[in-house]
Design the sequence.
């Protein structure tokens, strides 16, 4: 992905992703070194429209973007590909819409994953989407986990359900997960947790990029012997 001159914040429908998904590009300014813009995939499993799950996902994406300074964000609304996920589990063949969503997640520098809480756990749609991913596709990827629910008593879903699932997939889950009950929205405490979580994800995404160095120039064996 090449970086682009900044033309101001804008949002456009994605031709490749489902209708509820979109890309946002912010401050995509090329540095003198030609640095690439960090890519963030956001998976949200809210079923209603609008949903508190999507609202929390957008807040986390904004906090991560702010911490990064520039980012390309792709939001994937699982409700729009629910049938595609089910068909893939039955047939083993992803539809073009599902393939695009999977590609957006696996190719991103980092992932934000947000689910509503159903029966003290993540939603079935949320789990099914990650079940259809290749088991190696999230290895080492920074992941910010978050969930929404009707009351505070479901907050343990982060540590007892989401964190173990992504640990099994060998993703790098950030220390701060965010749970938001209905009463939390608009509160200073949720705002602070969102900013902290976004900063942690940004730090890990940038850290991975900084350690990724170009491959050493290949030197033929004959030249090595001549040294």
Sequence:
């Amino acid at each position: 992905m090449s970086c682009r001159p900044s033309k101001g914040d804008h949002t456009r429908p994605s031709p490749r992703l489902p209708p509820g998904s979109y890309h946002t590009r912010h401050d995509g300014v090329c540095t003198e070194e030609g640095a690439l813009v960090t890519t963030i995939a956001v998976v949200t499993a809210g079923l209603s429209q609008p949903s508190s799950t999507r609202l929390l996902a957008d807040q986390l994406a904004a906090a991560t973007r702010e911490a990064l300074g520039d980012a390309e964000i792709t939001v994937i609304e699982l409700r729009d590909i629910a049938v595609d996920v089910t068909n893939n589990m039955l047939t083993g063949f992803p539809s073009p819409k599902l393939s695009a969503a999977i590609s957006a997640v696996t190719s991103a520098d980092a992932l934000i994953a947000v689910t509503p809480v159903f029966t003290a756990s993540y939603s079935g749609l949320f789990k099914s989407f990650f079940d259809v991913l290749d088991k190696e596709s999230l290895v080492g990827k920074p992941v910010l986990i978050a969930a929404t629910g009707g009351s505070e008593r479901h907050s343990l879903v982060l540590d007892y359900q989401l964190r173990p699932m992504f640990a099994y997939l060998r993703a790098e889950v950030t220390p701060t997960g965010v749970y938001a009950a209905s009463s939390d929205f608009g509160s200073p405490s949720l705002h602070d947790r969102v900013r902290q979580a976004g900063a942690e994800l940004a730090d890990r995404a940038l850290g991975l990029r900084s350690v990724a160095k170009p491959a050493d120039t290949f030197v033929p064996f004959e030249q090595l012997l001549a040294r």
The chain has one domain: 10-226. DSSP finds seven helices and nine strands in the chain. The domain at 10-226 is CATH 3.40.50.360 (Rossmann fold).
